[in-house]
Amino acid sequence: MVVGHTVAAFDAELTALHAAIDRMAELVERQLAEALDALTTANVDKATQVISGDAAIDQLEMEIEAMSIRLLALRQPMAKDLRDIVAALKIASNLERMGDFAGSVAKRAVTLAGLPTLPPVGSLSWMGRTVLSMVGDMRRAYAEQDAALATVIRDRDGEVDAAYTSLFREFLTYMMETPAQITGCTHLLFAAKSIERIGDHATNVAENILYLVKGHLPLEERHKEDLSSFAVALPPVLES
Amino acid sequence: MVVGHTVAAFDAELTALHAAIDRMAELVERQLAEALDALTTANVDKATQVISGDAAIDQLEMEIEAMSIRLLALRQPMAKDLRDIVAALKIASNLERMGDFAGSVAKRAVTLAGLPTLPPVGSLSWMGRTVLSMVGDMRRAYAEQDAALATVIRDRDGEVDAAYTSLFREFLTYMMETPAQITGCTHLLFAAKSIERIGDHATNVAENILYLVKGHLPLEERHKEDLSSFAVALPPVLES
């Protein structure tokens, strides 16, 4: 029964690895929700908690890495099990980045709360809610190894990119009309970029789930609709 | 001689893996140099080449991943060899992100070249040169498994963060004084952020090299001096 024992131990370790990934994803989801809330309500205390909360996510990434390397070394997994562990390593790395970006949003929230007037944070809320729901779906797709849901996440990333591009243009125009808001809008643009990047990483995780479930990456290139790098708003004097 | 033969084949595969990482790092270094050049000289052709050149880096990441997974599955490596392969996976992932950011800089270069007047791109050049030399050192540290050089890279990241923070403040002030430059300066700020992120990823690679050589991560937290999230420039009317 030594083999049976070993297999059971390996399964238990894989289950623990999955649980650690889910815990990490749960923390990321909560950090993002709190960071968005801190940003839109100018809540410095909440933002400060998010900033200090990132350490727990970094710690989990290190634990997942150690678990994965241990499993690779001791269990010498093949095929699906090997993909499972490689996917865990990659997903943990993406989650760690997502946590960093939630922290970045919180840092901008602190700065914005200290400004004499708040720029229009409302424009961000659709984008924030969409990315937050992508992160929730990502958690569910991983837990249920749901390739169909992973594909849906991948498709929604294009919407977020398009929203970010339009927001970028809107804010440029707004800064020209209201120079007193330049500092606030610039920080808000970077917060928006961080949220957009969280969506990108959720999409990477969705692709890792597809690889894990199907054994290969999707063949079609994913949509890239973040055209903000090319967005231009000319000052009124030049347009006339 | 079956064991000797297997060891020799494994060594050859590891050497091929190292060579692939170095090729990827070389491409990233070249892409960054060209992107910086395109940005400071407003050269759209060069920027366009950088944008399309990113596909080769993505392709190499996939090859390195396939090689690593193959080595993990077939060779069941232990200790240093296992760290070597895990480090390769992580370094390739960082290099892929660095390539993306070089592409982002090139996209901003295209947009800036199309504006009626260029914002002061010169302020970026010190930062760009510093990050470029970090990337060169990173390549050398990996090739020579040089832990001392990897530590130097890690320490230089703080300088880049500090330069970016000061540049962020400078550009906010500049935009207030020159609203016609808001679009240009905003794109330049994002280009600066991409360059700063390339420095972060070079530092991650340096940490991967330390892990690979020493078997553990450095104990001291690395310096984080990017305080740009908190930078505020108030419009003249509010300061008076």
Automatic annotation (TrEMBL), chains A, B:
<feature type="domain" description="PhoU">
    <location>
        <begin position="21"/>
        <end position="108"/>
    </location>
</feature>
<comment type="similarity">
    <text>Belongs to the PhoU family.</text>
</comment>
<dbReference type="InterPro" id="IPR028366">
    <property type="entry name" value="PhoU"/>
</dbReference>
<comment type="subunit">
    <text>Homodimer.</text>
</comment>
<dbReference type="Pfam" id="PF01895">
    <property type="entry name" value="PhoU"/>
</dbReference>
<dbReference type="InterPro" id="IPR038078">
    <property type="entry name" value="PhoU-like_sf"/>
</dbReference>
<dbReference type="InterPro" id="IPR026022">
    <property type="entry name" value="PhoU_dom"/>
</dbReference>
<keyword id="KW-0813">Transport</keyword>
<dbReference type="GO" id="GO:0030643">
    <property type="term" value="P:intracellular phosphate ion homeostasis"/>
</dbReference>
<protein>
    <recommendedName>
        <fullName>Phosphate-specific transport system accessory protein PhoU</fullName>
    </recommendedName>
</protein>
<keyword id="KW-0592">Phosphate transport</keyword>
<dbReference type="GO" id="GO:0005737">
    <property type="term" value="C:cytoplasm"/>
</dbReference>
<comment type="function">
    <text>Plays a role in the regulation of phosphate uptake.</text>
</comment>
<dbReference type="GO" id="GO:0045936">
    <property type="term" value="P:negative regulation of phosphate metabolic process"/>
</dbReference>
<keyword id="KW-0963">Cytoplasm</keyword>
<feature type="domain" description="PhoU">
    <location>
        <begin position="125"/>
        <end position="209"/>
    </location>
</feature>
<dbReference type="GO" id="GO:0006817">
    <property type="term" value="P:phosphate ion transport"/>
</dbReference>
